[in-house]
Amino acid sequence: MGDYSINLPDDLLDLVKRWTAEGTMQFRWPTDDEGNYKHSGDRWGSGNVQSELEQLNPEREIKAVGQKNEGPAIDAFADFWRDVPARNIANLVESFKVMSVALLAMNAALIAYKNAAIRGLAELKKELDENQKWAWLPWSDDGEIHKRAQKLIGFFDETAQYDLEDFNATMANSTSVIQNEGKLYDDIAKRFTPDTEKTGKKLTS
């Protein structure tokens, strides 16, 4: 699900182009590709990536060294490892899961919004086609037919706006989560900054 792009059928695309060009329709088809969010979410949440990160943490070897050796250097190394690299790995594993969930939520939101728009536009087209049939009658009023079309489009826009607000809320929340995770990566980089003149000095808790 979500590995392909959802596009407007040609007849609905023509409808949107016509009425947006006239300035009657406010709706705009989203240009984002939901497949990109799905692909990225799957990559961030890949079990292979998490497994590789976890394998970088040789906790058993650290314990074995501590049991067979004594001294302040050994203790300092063990403290450093658990405070910086091991903590970084654990944080990254959890962060990658969070990033994956946020991206897949964006994928699902975009799919839901596009599908809702297609259903709404298909119904609108049917109503506009019915309305246009009156134009063939000799006593028809083109002005009235156009007014009815505008009302139908206005109702569609109003409904689509609610869907758009829900969609934007999900995208904003997920974007906020992703930005927040970026702070973790900055923090990890600071733990190794050369400005400390001491590799591994903890700058933040």
> Roughly what fraction of the amino acids lie in strands?
under 5%
Largest sheet: none
| Number of DSSP-assigned strands | 0
Cα separation of the termini: 40 Å
Percentage of helical residues? over 70%
Radius of gyration over C-alpha positions, nearest whole angstrom: 28 Å
Low-confidence stretches: 194-205
The average pLDDT is 78
Your description of this structure?
By secondary structure, the protein is mainly α. It has 7 helices and no strands. The chain has helices spanning 10-21, 34-44, 47-55, 59-68, 72-83, 85-132, 142-190. α5 (72-83) packs parallel to α6.
Question: How are the SSEs ordered, and which strands pair?
Answer:
Blueprint: H1 10-21, H2 34-44, H3 47-55, H4 59-68, H5 72-83, H6 85-132, H7 142-190
Helix pairs in contact: 2-6, 3-6, 4-5, 5-6, 6-7
List keywords for this structure.
205 residues, mainly alpha, 0% strand, elongated, disordered C terminus
Q: What's the short story on this structure?
A:
With 205 residues, the protein is mainly alpha-helical. The protein is built from seven helices and no strands.
